[in-house]
Amino acid sequence: QVQLVESGGGSAQAGGSLTLSCVVSGYTSSRFVCLGWFRQAPGKEREGVAAINSDGSIKYADSVKGRFAISRDNAKNTLYLQMNNLKPEDTAMYYCAAGRYIATVLETYEYTSWGQGTQVTVSS
Length: 124
Known about the structure:
Layout: E1 3-7, E2 10-13, E3 18-25, E4 33-40, E5 47-52, E6 58-60, E7 68-73, E8 78-83, E9 92-100, E10 113-114, E11 118-123
C-alpha cells in the first residue's frame, strides 16, 4: 500500500520561502514513479504545481515557474518543493501525489496515491 506524508507547511510573509517534504512508502522501486505537488485553495479546484518523474523530467505550472523548485531523493524516498518569493495567492493546502507509468503531467486524475496535505499560508 502506497503512503505519502507531507510536512513543512506553515506561515510565511510575501517574498519569503518555505520547503515542503513528502515521504513516500510502499513502492518496491522508484522506477517509473512520477511524483507531484498539487494545491487547493478554499473554493477552488485542486491544481497541479510541479511534477518530477523517475527519469528526471520536470514540469511546472506557469504560475510557479522561476519561483518553485521540485526535487526528489530516491535513496530517502522523499519528494521536496522549495518555494521562494511566495505570494499571497500561493496560500492553499498542498498535497503530494504519486503515479506509476505515467508521463510527467499535472493532471490530478493521472495520480493514484495522495497524501493528507499540509497548509501553506502567505500573508502580504
